[in-house]
Amino acid sequence: MQKWILQPSNSLLMLGDFNANYYVFPYEVDSDVEIVIKGQFPYARYISFTLSGQMDNVIATASDRLLIPDPGSTNPFLPCSDWNAKNRNYTIKILPTAPPEGSEHFVPEAGNNTFYAGTLKDGTPNKFGLIGFRIYVPSIGYDKTGGVGLPKITYCSTKKNCRNTRTYKTVNKTTNPEIPSTPTNIFDKELFSERCNNIVGQNCDLIWSRIGVIATRILQPDLNTVYILSDQIKRDPDNLLFIRWKAPTFPDTYHNIGISGHEDMRYWSMSFITKVGLLGLYTLSDFQTVTDKNGYVNLVISFGAPRPSCVTTENGFNWIDASELPLVPLTLFYRNNQVSQSFPYTAKNVPEGQIVPPEVMGEYYPCGKYVAPFYFDPCYCHYNDGHDNDNYSC
């Protein structure tokens, strides 16, 4: 038996999301050894397995929806599947060979989902690597594994059949209090809302870029996720960073509501990471975010400036006091996970390392603007012409 090694979200070079749990185990390619992983689909938002080879080259990623369950079991991550299915087993094997000619490095099959670890994506022989396991947003009432424990890893001889190892299901519930569901808040100061929304949309201080090619190779990213980042974060103690964007829709698996298949994407989040070391520091995820009456996220970030009285969740605002984070240069990191093919407003078609033009994402582009605290005064937003100045009154 082998054991998973926990990689905390604030680990070096992780770009970690604080609503996800990351695990790895190292392997060596041995022609006499087959690795078998048996587990149950958890009560969680998302899982994936990533096979990487030597030099941390990502070979293949299999997300939950690609895993074909064992015979007699259900994959609850497929649209309209039974979220509370009792039989939810899956089996994965890692073979020490190259994939068959014309085949990918991951081949799904009922009870026999297969990764081929013998070569890298370019056909170069592979000798060793890591298997990564991600699990995002365990549902309320369940532990960090989504109530089913970690998948069981077995090394066995290729001359024997050890694929029928029984998997026992143990549902582990926690006593953590429920995080409030994501409400849609209506800001009753209509003129304030409309005026301020127009102002922030006129120009953006933040520039977003796709994650670079080098980072893609060494960070073992989830190939089902689009990552963009902005490193123009200024720790200005006198001003606030106001970021506004349309919130993509997502399934409410946190409250054990199944996946319909009509959501814009499976998961999204905004995280602070360090520019050096790429350590995760803080995450605001979709299910923790309030939106205004039009479905927009209004995120206000302070680096020491006071919180305006109207910046409340009741008024559709999200507040982060970044002055409590370590005093290091900061980068914002925006994840879009498993984007629907019918949802075009992401940076997935922008080349790696390139700047993301706002028009590519439209209203879903996180437009950031540095503003004075009085920017959120209803009188300012109602009477000001959009140019920051102190000459305003009610």
The end-to-end distance, rounded to whole angstroms, is: 71 Å
Count of β-strands:
19
Query: For the residues shown, what is the average pLDDT?
Result: 85
Number of helical elements = 4
Overall tally of domains: 2
Strand order of the largest sheet: 1-2-9-4-5
Helix content: under 10%
What kind of oligomer do you see?
single chain
Low-confidence stretches: 165-170, 174-189, 382-394
The CATH topology of the largest domain:
Jelly Rolls
Q: CATH class of the largest domain, anyone? A: Mainly Beta
SSE sequence, one letter per element: EEEEEEEEEEHEHEEEEEEEHEH
Fraction of residues in β-strands: 25-35%
Protein described:
By secondary structure, the chain is mainly β. It folds into 2 domains: 5-157, Sandwich (Jelly Rolls); 190-383, Jelly Rolls. It has 4 helices and 19 strands. The protein has a 5-stranded antiparallel β-sheet with strand order 1-2-9-4-5. Strands 7-8-6-3-10 form a 5-stranded mixed β-sheet, with no helix packed on it. A 5-stranded antiparallel β-sheet has the order 11-12-18-14-15, with no helix packed on it. A hairpin with a 5-residue loop joins β14 and β15. The longest helix is centred in the middle third of the chain and has 11 residues, at 190-200. Mean pLDDT is 85; it is low at 165-170, 174-189 and 382-394.
